[in-house]
Amino acid sequence: MIKSAFNESRRITSAPRVKQHVVGGGFLLVVLLLIGSLLYSTISWMWDDQRLPLSKIVLQGELHYVSALDVQRAFAQLGHVGTFMSQDVDALQQVAESIPWVSHASIRKQWPDTVKVFLTEHQAQAIWNGNALLNDQGQIFDGDIGKLDQERVKLYGPADTNQEVLNVWRDISPKFTTLNLTITSLVLNDRRAWQIILDNGIRLELGKESLQERIERFVSLYKNLGSDTQRVSYIDLRYDTGAAIGWFPEQELEQENTDD
């Protein structure tokens, strides 16, 4: 009898605790649902195309050939630039780096509606095969040659020789500078023979072999020509020793002097 009364007492005292747990659990569930609903609404609002659109472009970098209009036109290729939250920065970077003069692009979004675009331009070292440009790394890029702010050397060569031809030009140019001459064109033809055009109009035929030795031979020969250098049309150095010199006809020289 005493045991039965004890059990009944336990059931009576535990009932309010169960009620408290149920009420507490229900309250927690309601709170979680409210938080989840609030998060969903906030995220939906931020990803809505009508909310937080990326509408401003801030262009940065030391730029000579790329304008804000070029960047706007490039981004227009995406069809639609998304919101602050939805737009993929990598996609913007890829499009920015498709602009011909752009070597590297760094993109950053700034709350709430701004895209910051930092661009690094190619440094044009030479005109390649008449219709492209080489940067200081010897890479080909498709910049507008007409935009160049000063003359560049013209380099020519077969496919995949752009780095080689640029390196040779850099290596041999100082030897001509000592003569107050400048290389305007350097050609590596399909037979792997070298040709140089100088700023005074002289053409050098250097052949396939002993390039450095033949240039040294030209330097020595040029110093000995003195004032006769203005009569030289070309110098063929494709010999083991010596060189063949082609001279302008006298009447052509007289005509040139008259034109001057």
Features:
260 residues, three-stranded mixed sheet, 12 strands, rod-shaped
Structural class: alpha/beta
Terminal CA distance? 136 Å
Instruction: Characterize the overall form.
Output: rod-shaped
- Which strand order does the major sheet show? 6-5-4-7-8-9-10-11-12
Biggest sheet statistics: 9 strands, mixed
Put simply, the count of helices is 6
Percentage of helical residues?
Answer: 40-55%
Number of DSSP strands?
A: 12
Q: What multimeric state do the chains show? A: single chain
Fraction of residues in β-strands: 15-25%
Order of helices and strands: HEHHEEEEEEHEEEHEEH
Q: Which stretches are low in confidence, meaning pLDDT under 50 for 5 or more residues running? A: 45-49
Average pLDDT works out at 83
- Radius of gyration, rounded? 38 Å
Short précis:
Helices cover 40% and strands 24% of the residues. With 260 residues, it is of the alpha/beta class.
Descriptive notes:
With about 260 residues, the protein is of the alpha/beta class. Helix content is about 40%, strand content about 25%. It has six helices and twelve strands. A hairpin with a 3-residue loop joins strand 2 and strand 3 (about 115-120). The longest helix has about 45 residues, at about 1-45. The radius of gyration is 38 Å and the shape is rod-shaped. The termini are far apart.
